Amino acid sequence: MRNFIALTRREVLSVFVSPLAYGTAAMFLFLFGLVFTWRFFFTRLVEVSTLVDPLGYFVPILVAPVLTMRLISEERRLGTLEMLLTAPVGDLEVVLSKFTGVMIFYGSMTALTLVHVGVMRYYYDGNMDWGSFATGYLGMLLIAGLFLAFGLFVSAFFETPMLAALVSFVSGLAVLTTGFAATPPAVVRPGMASDIYNFMLPFNHYKNLLGGVIDTRDLAYFVLTTVFFLFLTTRVLESRKWK
User: Fold this and answer.
1) How many of the other CB atoms lie within 10 Å of CB of 98?
2) How many domains does the chain have?
3) Distance from C-alpha of 54 to C-alpha of 48, rounded to nearest angstrom
4) Of 175, 158, 170, nearest to 236 (Cα)?
5) Which long-range contacts (C-beta less than 8 Å, at least 24 apart) are formed by 158-165?
6) In 19, 62, 189, 231, which residue has its Cα 20 to 30 A from 162's Cα atom?
C-alpha cells in the first residue's frame, strides 16, 4: 500500500504539472460550457441530460487518449519503464497508480462542471431531481474510467505516444459508431447473440444511468470491463520482463 500511495502521488504530480493536461482540461471545460450554454439558455431544461448528454460519453473518447498516451509509452521511449519495473514494486501497483492518477485528474475536471449545476439551480425555482444528477455524473465517471483504462492498455504497446493516442481514439470512435447503429450487424443473429452484443456496448449502460436508473448490471459492467483492461495492461508489463 505504501508503494501504491507513493507511485500515485508521483503520477498525480506529473499530470497536474503537464501543459498538455491543462490544455486538455481547457478543451474539456470549453466543450461543456458551450453545450450547456446552448442547451440550457435556449431550452431551460433543468435535467442532467442538458449538461452531460452527449458530452458525457463523447468527451472521454477525445480526452482519454490524450491523457493516457504518455503514461507508459513515454516511459518506454525514455527507458524509465525498465527502471520502474525492476524497482521493488509490483506491476499491478504501477498500473493502478497510473490509472488512479489520471482518474483523479479527470474527476477534478468533471467536478469543475458542477458550476453549471449551480447556474441551473440559480435560475430554476422548482425542486431539482438531485438523484438523477448524481447518477448522471456517476455514469460519466464510470464510462470515462473504462476509456482511460483502455487508453492505458493501448499505451503499454507503443513507444510513440501519438501512435498510442491514435489507436485509442480510433478504437473508441469505432465503439461509438457501433453503439449508435440502428440495428446490430448482420452477423449478429436475433436472440441471445443480440442480447450479448447490446450488453457489451458501454453506451447502453451509460444511458441507463443518465436516465436515473441504477442497475447492478450496469455498475458491474463498467467495473468488470475497467478491471479487465487494467489486468491486461499488467500482463503486458509482465511480459516485458521476459524479453
Assistant:
1) 26
2) 1
3) 11
4) 158
5) 158/73, 158/76, 159/73, 159/76, 159/77, 160/73, 160/77, 161/69, 161/70, 161/73, 161/74, 161/77, 162/69, 163/73, 164/65, 164/68, 164/69, 164/73, 165/65, 165/66, 165/68, 165/69
6) 231
Residue 79, phi then psi, degrees to nearest 5: 85, 10
First to last CA, the chain: 28
The tens digit of pLDDT for each residue in 77-103 reads 766 666 666 666 777 888 899 999 999
Q: What is the pLDDT of residues 162-177, one digit of tens each?
A: 888 999 999 888 877 7
Set of cell numbers at residue 201 = 456496448
pTM for the structure as a whole: 0.86
**DSSP code string of 119-183:** HHHHH--S---HHHHHHHHHHHHHHHHHHHHHHHHHHTT-S-HHHHHHHHHHHHHHHHHHHT-SS
Supply the range of the domain harboring residue 181: 2-241
Closest by CA to 18, choosing from 62, 70, 56, 57, is: 70
Instruction: Return all residues near 49 (Cβ < 8 A) that are at least 6 apart.
Output: 136, 210
- 8-state DSSP, 70: T
Q: Which of 121-125, 150-154, 217-221 has the lowest mean pLDDT?
A: 121-125
- pLDDT category at 147 given cuts 50, 70, 90 is very high
